[in-house]
Amino acid sequence: MKHAFAALSVVLLLSGCTATTGPDISYGYSPNMQPIPGSITYGGQPRTKLKKAPVGSIVPHQFIDSYGRKVYETYIIEPDRSLRLTSRRWAPDFLGFDD
To answer: What is the number of domains present in the chain?
Structure first.
């Protein structure tokens, strides 16, 4: 009985360790990555279409976020000429101001 209770306790503790949905602050790729203020696609797709760039082209973008950190994003041009956000990373903060 003690072993069954211990096993059940471990299972319950580990079940709380599952991933949750929420704001995407991951580095790199995430299938549900959402644009943040400063992203090209924040507030919708850009009004101008990228007509000369081939489909599948990579579009890099960098900006400073609301916390003063440099953000690097990568987009890919889709067949309908829209942009798909594929990766995001922040420049490391060597001064220790970043949480």
So the answer is: 1
